[in-house]
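User: I'll paste a sequence; please echo it back and then give the predicted structure.

Assistant: Echoing your sequence first, then the prediction.
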Amino acid sequence: MKDRHLLVDVALGKLSADKVVVDGDFLDVATGRIRKGVNIAIKGTRIAKIGNIDDTIGPETEVIDAENMIVTPGFVDSHYHIESSRLSPRRHAQLTLPYGTTSLFEGSHEMANCLGLDGVKYFLDEAKDLPQRIYVALSSATPPTPFERTGGYIGGMEAREALKWENVTGIGEIMDFTNLFGHEERLWAVTVSYTHLTLPTN
């Protein structure tokens, strides 16, 4: 809540921004048009104000001249598999962040089927403190069917544990519709575990 108060104070000109981006051409993704000469005030990691930002510039404010540059929102990929690239999250970020992918939601069933929750932990540890935000959608398919024996297992107990971890944001896609509709015990225990989360309100 404190961060939001700071953003409001910057927007009202009561507090200086940490940095401002001036005279950039802004890609409006809603209309597909480029708006010329846009100014942006930033506090912490969030945008506080767009437009006339003169009252947000203080003696400690970093000013970034974006003339002749296009400013775009970060691209967010809502379903991704770094694991399919066989790269670590860190190496993958080095290759994709410069092209604008600032956040992604990693489907974890390939890694989890090999290593279970240890694979998910590895992913989270590797992604920690990267400038690219990587969130994990916990595998619902470990193992993919009741007839397979893989290196990992995620049932209701494992799901409840992992869903408490930072940056594990939910359950990944369900591919085994036969067992979903047939009320298979492991799969249903995983899906039900998500409904017991206490989600943050701020």
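The chain has a mean pLDDT of 88. Helices lie at 2-11, 82-85, 89-96, 109-115, 117-127, 156-162, 177-181, 185-195.
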